[in-house]
Amino acid sequence: MKKNAPHILLVNPWIHDFAAYDFWAKPAGLLILGAILRDHGYHVLYIDCLDRFHPNAAKTDITKRYGRGPYLKTRIPKPESLKHIPRNYSRYGIKYEWFEEDLRRMKKPDLILVTSLMTYWYPGVQETIECIRKVFPDVFIVLGGIYSSLCSNHASSNSGADKIAPGPGEASILSLVGKHTGLSVKPTFDFNDLDTYPYPAYDLQNIINYIPVMTSRGCPFSCTYCASNMLNPNRMVRDPKLVAEEIFFWHKKYKVTDFVFYDDALLVNAEKHALPLFEEIIKSGFQIRFHTPNAIHVREITKKSAELMKKAGFHTMRLGLETAAFENRDELDTKVTEKEFKKAIDCLKQAGFKKNHVGAYLLAGLPDQTKKDIANSINIVNQNDITPVLAYYSPIPHTALWEKAKQASKYDLESDPIFTNNAILPCMEDGFSWETVSSLKKLVNNNAGNP
Fold first, then answer.
1. Residue numbers in the chain where pLDDT is lower than 50
2. Which domain range does residue 375 map to?
3. pTM of the model
4. What are phi and psi of 111, to 5 degrees?
5. Are residues 393 and 266 in the same domain?
6. What is the DSSP secondary-structure string of 375-434?
7. Measured between alpha carbons, how far is 404 from 242 in angstroms, rounded to an integer?
């Protein structure tokens, strides 16, 4: 790397919300771009506003909860449009003054790349960019990520960034950075081939408490509530042996024991993809754990795949069930039937998975969904002796369910992404109330009952 090579600062912004927690959440896309830039001769700097292990933060056990944990939070005023919600609103992540100090200590960057996640978290993006401008008023700022991709016009008008970069960034990152820094280089990787990508730059973190792993991109399903096909329109799959090598690299060099699959479709075409990977992991003999917060497709679970996952060290299994109203689920997806669900559970139990290892995501707050509908799904999951995990529905622009969500909501979803916040239950008939949330939590915890 040349001494005078341009300095590129990557920033993972704050979250502004009623609640937030580190459920194995890392800005994988941003750190892949960082790795690509580093491989091509750029100096790459990184600040994570969500860093739970910032040098100024209280010390905590990185292995607790398998790497998960609460973010530091600072209570802040609610957005004016959400004043009526009876919950506290906070900035999640490092303290404002820590971020400003970190910026002031570093060499002035030549370009700043900021990512974004949930669309309704954009106030955190705004404040992050405002703080950056305070320290580096004349440095060009590019905003990418989910918010910039799904709400490009809103992001252009409201984020404070100089440029919005929607969609996957690997194909354009080098030309974009070259344009704004003067150092143009030719790519040494094929952006259509995941096997040629460098490992994400997770080593830029202060502490590596877990590693996200992506064995593929894109999803062959077209669920009405999901934007995966828009965010990653091309299905790409990695060589399972190369994925295993990446896992072993992080384990051997950085002593990482918890790995998190970020795939949208890990078990699709499992015989050629996931199963060979699991076999490589088993052969290694490494004592490592795997978690699937993005969910496993229930239909793809077989006796063989369940046994291999158990032997490989899968510890936290999440199933993409979404609803147990099997007879009426065509409006959501066609991922699984009742028979397939029961068969998958049998396979997991026979392989040795216990109830505390296996959870089924259930969407709550869908358009036209009643509390009774949610309760029925919770009870069916409990009857199958696995754990119901409520996933509150957030309406997502450009999905097939978006129009129905707009009609069902008492909020003008189109006017402001803030109204798509799942914490306010935007599409439930009676909206957010502690009574609704408490009754659903009670159902989950008590295994039975009526809301």
1. 448-451
2. 210-446
3. 0.94
4. -160, 145
5. yes
6. HHHHHHHHHTTSEEEEEE----TTSTTHHHHHHH-SS-TTT-GGGG-GGG-TTSTT---H
7. 42
